Amino acid sequence: xxxxxxxxxxxxxxxxxxxxxxxxxxxxxxxxxxxxxxxxxxxxxxxxxxxxxxxxxxxxxxxxxxxxxxxxxxxxxxxxxxxxxxxxxxxxxxxxxxxxxxxxxxxxxxxxxxxxxxxxxxxxxxxxxxxxxxxxxxxxxxxxxxxxxxxxxxxxxxxxxxxxxxxxxxxxxxxxxxxxxxxxxxxxxxxxxxxxxxxxxxxxxxxxxxxxxxxxxxxxxxxxxxxxxxxxxxxxxxxxxxxxxxxxxxxxxxxxxxxxxxxxxxxxxxxxxxxxxxxxxxxxxxxxxxxxxxxxxxxxxxx
Length: 303
Ligand SMILES: [Zn+2]
What we know:
It contains 3 helices and 16 strands. It is an alpha+beta fold and about 300 residues long. The strands form 4 sheets. Strands 4, 7, 9, 10, 11, 13, 15 and 16 form an 8-stranded antiparallel beta sheet that branches. A 3-stranded antiparallel beta sheet has the order 1-2-3. Helix 2 packs parallel to helix 3. Zinc ion binds near residues 206 and 210.
């Protein structure tokens, strides 16, 4: 096999020299051949090689960058597809949340109706379009609008529930403060209204109910309240007044004993006194009065 040797005559000297030789030395036997070349040929050949190498480098670089771009594009396509799916799920989830909100609104409207409250004024919810017919950007805008709408709806629901809660709390408080039931176990011996006084024989107003019972029978509060007064009066004997708020007061007379003190908070059913025969009384009984804004009313309907 032949070896080619570029006859190097020292660096650029080979280019600058007008002529140069290439010596071909065969392996083994054979004659050494010498080729005489002009330097212009060599420059031309080197130029050609340079151009070819330049083109090769350019194409290699283009191929490499194209390949990176294609891979990047593929990745972006996958990411876009995944984002589109995520958006679709978001649209579905948001639709479900809206549906739940509508169900809650319906339930709340019925509660407001039961509480005799006006319905909450609100817009009809707008459904969001799917991705098939809309651009993702438009869908994101829709989702944002829907979220804003839901936030407004949640605030409306919160305010409405506060109104209903306050109303119910008021009703519960009023119910607990409204006297109800018998204050002691016994039987009615005298009603509310005009009657002949057992002491003077004249017709006078009897401002409560008389409930006959044995001395010591427990007397209970007929509503939540605060003990307003505990005192002895010649007429009522050992007398107890409970303030229930909302204008209601109950008065208990002729007790043998009073078990609570002024200012004490009590609940309906708490034992507050014992039936007795103190004051102007013809026998053991409880005189029970109910006053609304200071005016005695018939307690019989509340028993
Ligand atoms: Zn009486």
